Amino acid sequence: MNEQSKIDEICIGLQDKGIINLNKQRITKMKSGTTDGLVYSVSEHNVPKYVLKLDHPKQINFASRFFHTYQNVRLLPKLYYTDPEKSLFCMRI
Fold first, then answer.
1. Is 90 in contact with 19 (CB distance < 8 Å)?
2. Distance of alpha carbon 63 from its chain centroid, rounded?
3. Helix, strand, coil shares, percent, the chain, to 5
4. Would the CA dihedral through 92, 43, 56, 83 be positive or negative?
5. What secondary structure letter does DSSP report for 11?
6. Residue 74 CB: number of other CB atoms within 10 A?
7. If you count Cβ atoms within 10 Å of the first and of the last residue's Cβ in the chain, which end, N or C, has fewer?
8. What pLDDT does residue 33 have?
9. 32-71: string of b/e by CB count within 10 Å (b at 16+)?
10. Is 86 helix (H, G, I), strand (E, B) or coil?
11. For the stretch 4-19, what's the b/e string if a residue is b when 16 or more beta carbons lie within 10 angstroms of its beta carbon?
């Protein structure tokens, strides 16, 4: 399975679970990041709505704990969902 197919499948799965709600989505791979994980912007009608981060479970767990600890800091994005297997998280923009 190629990278685009994998991220499309992830978005469909998140929609099926009711975690994200998109009508017409556009997924863009972002070129920056602080780990070797993959970061994607998910937009609806060219308006960014979510950021998906795929990485090693240790990195996802660390980042999820960080965003949970500082969830009341308005300058930081809000963690919306963390995969139970710690393979990805989703932040709502």
1. yes
2. 12
3. 30, 30, 40
4. positive
5. H
6. 5
7. N
8. 66
9. eeeeebbbbebbeeeeebbbbbbbeeebbeebbeebeeee
10. coil
11. eeebeebbeebeeeee
What residue type is assigned to position 78 of the chain? K
pLDDT, tens only, 48-87: 999 999 999 999 999 999 999 999 999 999 999 999 999 9
Burial class (CB in 10 A: 0-12, 13-18, 19+), 29: exposed
Distance between CA atoms of 61 and 53, rounded to whole angstroms? 12
The residues with which 91 forms a beta bridge, in sequence order, are 51, 79
Residue 50 β-bridge partners: 42, 92
Q: pTM (2 decimals)?
A: 0.86
d(CA 70, CA 62): 12
